[in-house]
Amino acid sequence: MARYVYNFGDGNKDLKDLLGGKGANLAEMTRMGLPVPPGFTITTLACREYLRTGSVPAGLFEEVEEHLREIQARMDKRLGDRGDPLLLSVRSGGKFSMPGMMETILDIGLTDTSVLGLAARSGDARFAWDSYRRLIQMFGRTVFDVPAEAFESELTGARAHAGVTSDAELGVAELQDLVRAYKKVFHAHAGRDFPQAPHEQLYLAITAVFSSWNAERAVLYRRQERIPQDLGTAVNVMAMVFGNRGADSGTGVAFTRDPATGRRGVYGDYLTNAQGEDVVAGIRNTVSLHELATIDPRSYRQLLSVMERLEQRYRDLCDIEFTIENGKLWMLQTRVGKRTPAAAFVIAGQLVDEGTITLDEALQRVTGEQLAQLMFPSFDPTALPTPLTTGVPASPGAAVGAIVLDSAAAAAASGPVILVRRETNPDDLAGMIAAQGILTSRGGKTSHAAVVARGMGKTCVCGAEELVIDTEAETVTVHGTVLHAGDIVSLDGTTGRVYPGAVPVHPSPVVRYFEGELSPANDPLLAAVQRLMTHADHTRRLGVHANADTATDAERARRFGATGIGLCRTEHMFLGDRRTLVERLILADDDTERDAALAALLPLQRADFIDLFTAMDGLPVTIRLIDPPLHEFLPALEDLTARVAGAEALGRDPGHDAVLLTAVRRMHEQNPMLGLRGVRLGLVIPGLFAMQVRAIAEAAARRVADGGDPRPEIMVPLVGAVQELETVRAEAEAVLAGIGGAPPIRIGTMIEVPRAALTAGEIAKSAQFFSFGTNDLTQMTWAFSRDDVEGAFFSRYLSLGIFTASPFETIDTTGVGELIQIAVARGRAARPDLTIGVCGEHGGDPASVRFFHRTGLDYVSCSPFRIPIARLEAGRAATADATTSDSR
Ligand code: ADP
Ligand code: MG
Ligand code: MG
Q1: pLDDT tens digit sequence for 477-523
Q2: Nearest CA to ligand 1 atom 27
Q3: DSSP letters for 194-233
Q4: Are 296 and 324 in contact (CB under 8 A)?
Q5: Ligand 2 centroid to 321 CA: how many Å?
Q6: Best mutation site among 333, 335, 338 for ligand 1, i.e. most ligand atoms within 8 A of its Cβ?
Q7: Using one digit for the tens of pLDDT, what is the confidence trace for 185-244?
Q8: Which of 18, 686, 769, 819 has the least C-beta neighbours within 10 A?
Q9: ∠ CA 60-64-68 to the nearest 5 degrees?
């Protein structure tokens, strides 16, 4: 017979798949001999069976009865006993905690008769009747979907009638009346009487917890948190203990360290004479856990020792729920506690100091995402006003600006603005780009606004449903406060809070530390960051380079720990006042004109490279030859057409504009992404690549002459066939041969076209290094262009589950990743000493970095601000075998 039920004494903390997090941890505490009320766990397997077939698996309730008998024996009470009833709680709990998403029912077993027994036995009629009314309420809501307000309005009525302000002041007679009223409410909505058979209550409750797995909010929550939908929940059934039995009883929650800062010492809240949920519900004011030392010193001391043992067992911050019944402490829950990113770093460092975990393990306790959060600017915590409202924290950061309600206004605004919309769509793109931050009243983490904002690295709060946006009146109303377009608001994309006015923004101390402006001495967070980064650098196998085009970026990248430039784009060197030179190049009618244009560009490029080699002295600098289509350097077709038409209308000669317009028309492409760009340009425009190669080599020679150590590498973009590379290479080598005094310069290629990945074996014969251009490779593999699709259908794809993350943020390991693996294998087979890196934005994405480590790349390259994240994740990837902690 399948075994669906485990006694708490039979499980342990590593059985989360089967017993859920709550069940596994209750089992662990029971095994440790901690005071846990007796109980058992119905496995997630039973739930999955139930969800699959629509009925409870055969034999389940028999097993439940068997285990129930054990509880009854241990508690010396029976379920449904008239004189001394056993009461039970039925608690949901899946593998991953889903706070508030699923159901728990307390006080199962109370009926019209057993409530009398409980009253007599406990000598506390008030307590018995209060428990009974709680049961009807929770059971009605959870099992029969009775609207919560139906009970709430009875409760409010009862308080008003008795002339009291809190539930705790209701007397026995009033609670008895309330029970009668609740039973009527129950009947009206459920179409039947409140069940008077305790076993039926239990079975119905178990089934309701199974079903709550598929409640709409639970499904949505899992989608957002990327928790698989098919895990199912376990159900924990355990004997009730009562914190609501008078002044020597109570309930509380506690943390073994401060989950906000990581500071050592216990933290928590305690509520006298109350049952579990009252603490969270904020019904009455709690007191700090430290006051328990005065209220009940014995239980307090016992609690401290329990917490210490839990920390030793879990080797991490634990949070716990406990109840004290008539001076006796009971443990009701524990788990590895959630914490802020700052606390994650601080605690990992402390646990190493305390000898609890190794540095390798400490690296597994923090993530690149957490480090990224610590690197965003934040609001000055001492200057926070009361928030106007809170939405879904969709894209982190701190943004301040004036409200604008439409995207055209945002795009046209001169100062910083916050774009406020019900929801966004592709037409809002220009406004989103212009805004400091985006605020919507609809949609969650996969809404259009959220997806696009994250892609742009822009602060976004979405789904702030309390906002009433009136675009006609140009107002935003929240709780009666009316804001007008132009009013300043502040958005915290990390917490989802929206503040009135301009909240002062703090630069991130972690960034200031990386910049060398703050010392880690005497700052626990910075000291922990330093320690873990040092260890990550020590253990990682992947190199971390930077995508940097200017000396300023290169210097920052170096401060942030880059050991090379993996991608220097040369196209910015064609912008600004140099555009006219590029125009001359494009418009050249013959070789002489073209050579003159190139000769004018040469010294400018050379000077740029000298600066870059100076900033990166002694480190490799991979320079990509020009990549974008040349018409990107000419004015836009629409602008030129308008200018020419305008001049003609006025009877003036459009002059140079007419020449440009002809060129732009000639060069117009249907799909520029798939057009004349990359290596194709170099093969079609004589002398262009040769000029760039010359600038690189002459700059290097100059640096050597000045005593420097330049290490340039030349990278050819968009190669799809080895012959392309060979042709460019021959031309480059001829140029290099004519320049004395430069160090040897390696020539390699980007792998960013699927054909290049597939023919990597051929290409490697001509390339000394590969660098994956994962942006293009993703676009070409999926056959969509980022600029066109991110706003158009990504949110739909994410909510349909076709993507679990945007493939432009996190590498698509199954598709694009397969091409990368093929290219690595074939490239290395042809040339064992081939250097392989990646220079797409994925190089700074935590999950992608781990994939690149597994795939055996030599380095990742990313934007300067992502470098610490890549270093950390590369270290984590290298030490991934160490014990992992699951605080999800
Ligand atoms: P959640 O997962 O939402 O925290 P829980 O299953 O932990 O839900 O239960 C909700 C509340 O009921 C908690 O405060 C818990 O401590 C309390 N509770 C659960 N079981 C018992 C019990 N057997 N005796 C007393 N209180 C309980
Ligand atoms: Mg709980
Ligand atoms: Mg590219």
Answers
A1: 999 999 999 999 999 998 999 999 999 999 999 999 999 999 999 99
A2: 276
A3: PP--HHHHHHHHHHHHHHHTT-HHHHHHHHHHT--TTS-E
A4: yes
A5: 7
A6: 333
A7: 999 999 999 999 999 999 999 999 999 999 888 888 887 777 899 999 999 999 999 998
A8: 686
A9: 175
